[in-house]
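Hey, resending since the last one bounced:
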Amino acid sequence: MGIDWLQANLECCGVDGAEDWSRDMNISTYWISASGGNHELDTPDSCCLESKIADGCGTGAATGYNNKDVYTKGCYEAGKSWLMNYTTAMGVCGFIFIIFEVVCAMIAGCLGRRVRYE
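The structure tokens again:
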């Protein structure tokens, strides 16, 4: 599932934190209802710290009291931070791509002109 990949790779949990997965936040209704309401205080295992990953490691971690084994940083901030770290690289790649396209168009124009005069 996409959210599991995101949480594991960005080392985050929920939108603003692990508490987003609790019933009290009224956000994660699918997660809670997927097992008949048994996940009211749990986070997905993808929220667990890398050193603590095991089946059921997120049990009870959606409350502020028992979340020492899960990432406390929210994925919104983690994603924003990741994007800001790679914005320059993405911009440079985009600029290089544009230059490449312009050079290719110029070469195509020159070849087209040469073929027309021969």
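The first helix runs from residue 2 to 10.

Sorry for the duplicate.
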